[in-house]
Write a structure and sequence with these properties.
By secondary structure, the chain is an alpha+beta fold. Among the domains are: 200 residues, Chemotaxis protein chec, CATH 3.40.1550.10; 44 residues, Surface presentation of antigens (SPOA) (Roll). 37% of the residues lie in helices and 22% in strands. The chain has 11 helices and 12 strands. Strands 1, 2, 3, 4, 5, 6, 7 and 8 form an 8-stranded antiparallel β-sheet that branches. The chain has a 4-stranded antiparallel β-sheet with strand order 9-10-11-12, with no helix packed on it. The longest helix has 26 residues. It is elongated. The relative contact order is 0.10.
Length: 379
């Protein structure tokens, strides 16, 4: 076809339908693969588990985290990539107990940079365009804690232990590799995309995506349905227990009727009202005697104790600690000239002032801590 026209062989190939053509796009999954009830159930599982994850993330960041009600959709890997064509962080989280399979968490690289900045004590308002190895490690730890708490809440829902492996974090651009999601999950089947809106105060307002293979999603739904079915069948037994307890209470608190008498059942509270109740009686308190030093105290007189003096304290973030170097100045919470604390084996014993003895620091005790305060410090 060098002159722009088809040769006879190419024409014959077209007629026979054997000429190479572009691959057909992947057919979208049909709606009957996941009915509405299964979608609602899966959404409820995701809502509870990610709600717990949001609480964990909030504690890590020191900011309020809101994750909205999820949207559950059945999609292909290519459709998910087309809907999220931005530089992303993919967290591959595999289940090792309770659930068979794995799932992916996908968030934008910008959101990942903001999360790491907040974890290190920053304000999250100046995210870096590229993520370093340290930042990727921080994102991995945040996702590990989030999905760990999510697995704990699913353990409660499924009434069985659910555990995960540490997540594997990869940076990618979904628009460049539309098969990366399918390659991660290693599942030739439709995928369930669960979309959440994640808001972290004024620094993050974007979409967090969870991707689960259809078989794993159906397994979660079946587990929850099984637990709910077991709970409903156990209800009659739970209701029967108070009735048996009421009968026993009635029989033990009332005299046994004669054969000619037909007793009338009474409520449990009526039987309990007939039990004599008296106010509690306590002996009067005696005046406390002063503590007497035990005679055998000499047995421990030679036990060595560690004495330390606390000049003051300061509270710093991890970021501030890492930025310290020679010449750094740390401001303590104690004023110049204020008393310092003498601590014996980790317990506050006395207030002191700092003195110099022959070019060596020393302390002069100015006040002994009251014995009651010392007792409270031991608790």
């Amino acid at each position: 076809m060098g002159n722009g026209m088809l040769s006879q062989e190419e024409i014959d190939a077209l007629l026979r339908g054997t000429m190479e053509s572009d691959p057909e796009p992947e057919a979208p999954p049909t709606a009957d693969m996941l009915d509405e009830m299964e979608k609602d159930t899966l959404g409820e599982i995701a809502n509870i588990s990610m709600g717990t994850a949001a609480t964990t993330l909030s504690q890590l960041l020191g900011k309020k985290v809101d994750i909205t009600t999820p949207k559950v959709e059945l999609m292909t890997s290519e459709q998910i990539s087309n809907d999220y064509p931005i530089p992303s962080v993919i967290c591959d989280v595999r289940y090792k107990a309770g659930i068979e399979g794995s799932n992916l968490l996908i968030l934008s690289q910008r959101d990942g940079s903001v999360i790491v900045d907040l974890m290190m004590g920053g304000d999250g308002k100046n995210p870096t365009p590229e993520l370093s190895e340290l930042q990727i490690s921080g994102i991995s730890e945040a996702m590990n804690q989030m999905m760990g708490s999510s697995a704990t809440s699913m353990s409660t829902m499924f009434n069985s232990v659910v555990d995960i492996t540490p997540p594997k974090v990869v940076l990618t651009d979904l628009s460049m590799d539309k098969n990366i999601i399918q390659n991660f999950l290693q599942a030739e089947e439709p995928l369930v995309r669960i979309s959440f809106r994640m808001v972290v105060e004024e620094v993050i307002d974007s979409i967090l995506i969870q991707v689960i293979p259809l078989s794993v999603a159906k397994g979660m739904v079946n587990k929850l349905m099984s637990v709910m079915a077991g709970g409903s069948s156990a209800a009659p037994a739970a209701q029967a227990a108070p009735q048996a307890q009421t009968t026993m209470s009635y029989q033990t608190s009332r005299p046994t009727p004669t054969p000619s008498t037909t007793p009338t059942p009474a409520p449990a509270y009526e039987a309990s009202m007939q039990t004599p109740v008296q106010p509690a009686q306590f002996a009067p308190l005696q005046q406390g005697q002063p503590m007497v030093q035990p005679d055998n105290l000499s047995l421990i007189m030679d036990v060595p104790l560690q004495i330390s003096v606390e000049l003051g304290r300061a509270k710093k973030t991890i970021k501030e600690i890492l930025e310290m170097g020679p010449g750094s100045v740390i401001e303590l919470d104690r004023l110049a000239g204020e008393s310092v604390d003498m601590i014996v084996n980790g317990k506050l014993i006395a207030k002191c002032e700092v003195v110099v003895i022959n070019e060596t620091f020393g302390i002069r005790i100015t006040d002994i801590v009251h014995p009651l305060e010392r007792m409270n410090s031991l608790k």
